[in-house]
Amino acid sequence: MASASLLKSSPVLDKSEFVKGTQTLRTPSLAAVRYHPTTAPSALVVKASAYADELVKTAGLVPLAGSNDESWCQGLDGLASRTAAYYQQGARFAKWRTVVSIPNGPSALAVKEAAWGLARYAAICQDNGLTPIVEPEILLDGEHGIERTFEVALKVWAEVFYYMAENNVLFEGILLKPSMVTPGAECKERATPQQVAEYTLKLLHRRIPPAVPGIMFLSGGQSEVEATLNLNAMNQSPNPWHVSFSYARALQNTCLKTWGGRPENVKAAQDTLLVRAKANSLAQLGKYTGEGESEEAKKGMFVKGYVY
């Protein structure tokens, strides 16, 4: 069973343990490795560049043959040995991102490939003591409405959990990083935070087992304020999970623009980042109001065909 070594060597952390300060390494596809706080940093830095170089060669989004111009995420070859090695170096979490495009279908082939790849990755991680962060991102590209996103998300998450069950993945030993249920970025009919929360929570209740300990939403090109308002609205309704965030652009954008690479702007950039972090902290409690936000934080960050 994939869960055996996980239970023996890396028990699921509770929320208080998960949010403690740790070091993070970001690389393509298997993109975040979270280190145990007791691991000496010097023991980890040596291997970081080699790990990144290896993943650039073996993992990432590539064209999916036979599909409607869609992608799949390669990188399973050799993943077992890599995860075992990085567990020994102190890694305890890993993340795998794959994408689903609504304007391009999504084809049944692309959905199945995304779900199967995520399931194999999760099983391999657990077998080697890592907690897998599972991320099928439904891209914002398109003119479709929120109902269409909801329909596709239902299909994607049904496939993901079906194949994770087929691969004996322990649901209590994973974390999810889904996209919120929103209209396409080019849809003329925008959704309110309450509508986003309603559709997203409905998706979670229909597809996500309560055994899953945590859900961390990605922002996917929403503005900083939009992502925070939507998270806040979700946390104003009861749900059996800890509903949190794992934003990149929606946490860093204004901070990076404030900094601009200039040493004299460091303090202002740090203050800006603290404002954003506090806003999302309040949103996890359903207590964010949106008051006092800058115009920069309200700007959307959607980039058509965005890849990383």
TrEMBL record:
Its annotated pathway reads: Carbohydrate degradation; glycolysis; D-glyceraldehyde 3-phosphate and glycerone phosphate from D-glucose: step 4/4
| EC code(s) of this entry | 4.1.2.13
Pfam annotation, one family = Glycolytic
Q: Does the keyword Lyase apply?
A: yes
Note the superkingdom of the native organism.
Eukaryota
Q: Which PROSITE patterns match?
A: ALDOLASE_CLASS_I (PS00158)
Catalytic activities? beta-D-fructose 1,6-bisphosphate = D-glyceraldehyde 3-phosphate + dihydroxyacetone phosphate
Family affiliation: Belongs to the class I fructose-bisphosphate aldolase family.
What protein name is recorded for this chain?
Answer: Fructose-bisphosphate aldolase
Q: What organism is the protein native to? A: Eucalyptus grandis (Flooded gum)
